[in-house]
């Protein structure tokens, strides 16, 4: 019974723990475990981009209809991030959401099996919708967890390093797809069977990983911990009610626009290359996509290097600006030149998603968990922009001309990059977090203290009339 109590997934958000002051050394194990999740959804996302073209070939559907995969996948994100996953996160904790998301991911992978067997595109989209709910749940918890687990000043660097393994997953998936999905003419049935085995292997792996999370002891970061961090950095003198967190909602809008553009480009990359580059098969184009995703992954590692010496907000502005500069020529250029423009665009896309998450959550304090759901919900742009690009491509019979669609959405997301650099109410919270010393020195507790109860420096003091106030023994009354 003691063992089961220690494995409880219920955590009180009113108690402050040592998790708010974790050092780099103390946060290594939980960060490594959660980083595996980033690889998982990078791999799943990479498979989706490859399957988009594969189903066009094998099921004889047009570009707009094949984008139903992206619509089902990313359309599930707001349902998870603003609905069931966010509710579990606020009422139970991060570990509970990790387990829940992995179980949904595994369930969707199992359902994909009979759908592929019977060549049901609609059924497979339903399975992808369940997988999207699972991955949306994981993103709802993993992105804020990586951001807040460890010294606040390194948040942008931490999340970009973890997201780099997402990029590694997106590289491996197209390479696998080029050998497994795109076979010789007449071997469509064999290709579909290969896809079935891939999804069965995914299901087994994620169910095992859910067990690892259940038995692992990782720190739970509460709302009280986040309020403490915001207070220590003076990033939010007055947090205010949730509906007045305008910086958060602007970040969510930017995430919607940016993610939609990123997903649209990757989802139709194979179409673009086969149409504009002479004598290029779908299999070869899938290998080129793997190379583009490698450029994406490399961009994240180099972005982290720049963030070591330059403020993350400036790196973010430079990278997003370059996305606009280089995607524009892909509309008119063809062959290797046009493809090279997309390669460079993917390189500069690399740090944008995680940096929007990190900057958008700055100074939210007690609203951190709820706010993370809104930023992750912005991923639903991946369900809206690809069908729009597909419709424009079908209308003009040209994927290259349709690249004007992601260009427009990049420009819309650029508004947030400008504000976070030049508007004081956006810029100041980001800068104050990047200079704080919280987590740079070892706290008096250990990671195990997070599981067992509140920080020893916080106690309850009862006043006349039965009112209870939480008192920080090293400072002053912090709440009642």
UniProtKB/TrEMBL annotation:
Give a yes or no for keyword Heme in this entry.
Answer: no
Q: Which domain of life is it from?
A: Eukaryota
Residue ranges, annotated region (Disordered):
437-480
Principal location: membrane
Q: Which Pfam families does the record match to this protein?
A: MFS_1 (PF07690)
Naming one, the record's GO cellular component terms include: plasma membrane
Give the record's membrane topology.
Multi-pass membrane protein
Which cellular compartments is it found in? Cell inner membrane
Name the residue ranges with Basic and acidic residues bias. Answer: 458-467
Query: What are the alphabetically sorted keywords of the record?
Result: Cell membrane, Membrane, Transmembrane, Transmembrane helix
Q: Which residues cross the membrane?
A: 28-48, 68-89, 96-114, 120-142, 163-182, 197-216, 248-270, 314-332, 338-361, 373-393, 405-423
Q: Name one GO molecular function term.
A: transmembrane transporter activity
Alphabetized SUPFAM superfamilies for the sequence: MFS general substrate transporter (SSF103473)
Q: Does the keyword Membrane apply?
A: yes
What segments bear the compositional bias annotation Polar residues?
470-480
PANTHER family per UniProt: L-FUCOSE-PROTON SYMPORTER (PTHR43702), PROTEIN TSGA (PTHR43702:SF3)
From the Swiss-Prot or TrEMBL record, give the protein name: MFS general substrate transporter
Native organism is Hyaloscypha bicolor E
């Amino acid at each position: 019974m003691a063992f089961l109590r220690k494995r409880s997934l219920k955590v009180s958000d009113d108690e402050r723990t040592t998790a708010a002051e974790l050092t780099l050394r103390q946060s290594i194990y939980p960060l490594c475990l959660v980083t595996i999740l980033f690889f998982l959804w990078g791999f799943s996302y990479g498979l989706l981009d490859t399957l988009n073209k594969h189903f066009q070939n094998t099921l004889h559907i047009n570009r707009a209809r094949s984008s139903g995969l992206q619509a089902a996948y990313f359309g599930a994100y707001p349902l998870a991030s603003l609905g069931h996953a966010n509710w579990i996160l606020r009422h139970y904790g991060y570990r509970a959401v990790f387990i829940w998301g992995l179980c949904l991911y595994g369930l969707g992978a199992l359902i994909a099996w009979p759908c592929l067997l019977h060549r049901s595109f609609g059924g497979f989209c339903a399975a992808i919708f369940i997988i999207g709910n699972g991955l949306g749940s994981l993103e709802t918890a993993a992105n804020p967890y990586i951001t807040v687990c460890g010294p606040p000043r390194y948040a942008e660097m931490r999340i970009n390093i973890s997201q780099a393994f997402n990029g590694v997953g997106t590289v491996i998936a197209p390479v696998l797809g080029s050998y497994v999905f795109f076979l010789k003419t007449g071997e469509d049935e064999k290709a579909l069977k290969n896809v079935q085995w891939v999804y069965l292997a995914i299901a087994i792996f994620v169910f095992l990983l859910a067990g690892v999370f259940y038995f692992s002891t990782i720190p739970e970061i509460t709302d009280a911990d986040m309020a403490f961090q915001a207070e220590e950095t003076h990033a939010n003198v007055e947090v205010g009610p949730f509906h007045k967190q305008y910086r958060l909602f602007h970040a969510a809008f930017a995430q919607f626009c940016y993610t939609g553009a990123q997903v649209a480009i990757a989802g139709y990359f194979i179409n673009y290359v086969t149409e504009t580059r002479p004598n290029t098969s779908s299999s070869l184009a899938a290998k080129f996509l793997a190379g583009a995703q490698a450029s994406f992954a490399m961009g994240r590692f180099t972005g982290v290097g720049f963030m070591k010496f330059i403020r993350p907000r400036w790196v973010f502005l430079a990278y997003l600006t370059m996305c606009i500069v280089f995607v524009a020529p892909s509309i008119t250029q063809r062959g290797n030149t046009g493809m090279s423009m997309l390669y460079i665009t993917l390189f500069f896309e690399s740090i944008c998603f995680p940096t929007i998450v990190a900057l958008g959550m700055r100074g939210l304090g007690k609203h951190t968990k709820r706010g993370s759901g809104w930023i992750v919900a912005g991923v639903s742009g991946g369900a809206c922009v690809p069908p729009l690009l597909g419709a424009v491509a079908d209308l003009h019979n040209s994927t290259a001309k349709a690249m004007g669609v992601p260009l427009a959405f990049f420009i819309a997301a650029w508004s947030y990059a400008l504000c976070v650099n030049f508007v004081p109410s956006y810029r100041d919270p980001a800068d104050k977090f990047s200079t704080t010393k919280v987590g740079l020195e070892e706290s008096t507790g250990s990671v195990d203290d997070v599981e067992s109860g509140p920080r020893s420096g916080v106690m309850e003091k009862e006043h006349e009339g039965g009112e209870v106030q939480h008192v920080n023994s090293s400072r002053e009354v912090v709440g009642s």
